[in-house]
Amino acid sequence: MKYNKEFVERLSIGTVDYDEIIVPALRASLESVRGKKILDLGCGNGRYSRLFARLGAQVMGIDKNKNQLDLAIEREHVDRLGIDYKSGDIRSLGIGRDSYDVVLLMFVLVDTSTAAAVKDFISVASEILKRGGLLVIADLHPHNINRHNDIENVTPKGEYSYFDNGAEASSRTWLNDGTAVSFCPNYHYRLDFILNTLAEGGFCLRKFVEPEYRTAFPTHMLVLARNDKTEPH
Ligand SMILES: C[S@@+](CC[C@H](N)C(=O)[O-])C[C@H]1O[C@@H](n2cnc3c(N)ncnc32)[C@H](O)[C@@H]1O
């Protein structure tokens, strides 16, 4: 299993991209989240849930993987940030419509095996978000495919090109102790597919960030999209 106990424990050492790329990009791009209701979909070990809870948000984290969630809950018992964690699948959450200010999908698309599921996740985010609420997506940049770098490498399995939406891949991610772990399988989605899916889902792009970090090409991306859905008649 991809997220077996040994793997999730290694991952909890922390990754270079979290500290040096994504967190600085979030801090530079987001307005205050104090008092906001945030839903962290595919929260993993809860690192983003904790980040936002420390910034004063009221956070719920959801993940389908027990090993990841157990680590998040264990940390919560120590940190006591008031984060509520639940086991569940993003596609069948049973959470009320229009109930959250911010929904996070942090490194979840790369973990999603079909384009149909990516579309479902974005549509779930739209339902759960209040009108005007913010969807935050952080992920590997789709153009970081077949590029060699010491932050995160994405390699497609077989002869796929950039244009093969949903191509199976694997990625090697560097940890804070200088070692690396491999996520396998991972999946590659084209940038036009992600952005057009957001537009079709009623989202309006607020900010698209390609953090610059030690490479001549973008390794990661941050997408902030506002939920502009129209009220049901
Ligand atoms: C690459 S990890 C990212 C975890 C966390 N967001 C982070 O950035 O540290 C992707 C996570 O999404 C979860 N996930 C993938 N598909 C899911 C689904 N359909 N429902 C709930 N969780 C899901 C996986 O179990 C995994 O923990």
Can you tell me about this structure?
By secondary structure, this protein is α/β, with parallel strands linked by helices. It has one domain: Rossmann fold (3-Layer(aba) Sandwich). It has helices at 5-11, 16-29, 47-54, 66-79, 115-128, 191-200; strands at 37-41, 58-63, 84-87, 100-106, 129-140, 152-156, 167-174, 180-188, 203-209, 220-227. The strands form two sheets. It has a seven-stranded mixed beta sheet with strand order 3-2-1-4-5-10-9, sandwiched between helices. A three-stranded antiparallel beta sheet has the order 6-7-8. A hairpin with a 5-residue loop joins strand 7 and strand 8 (180-188). It is globular. The relative contact order is 0.17. The mean pLDDT is 95. The site of S-adenosylmethionine has 18 residues, from helix 3.
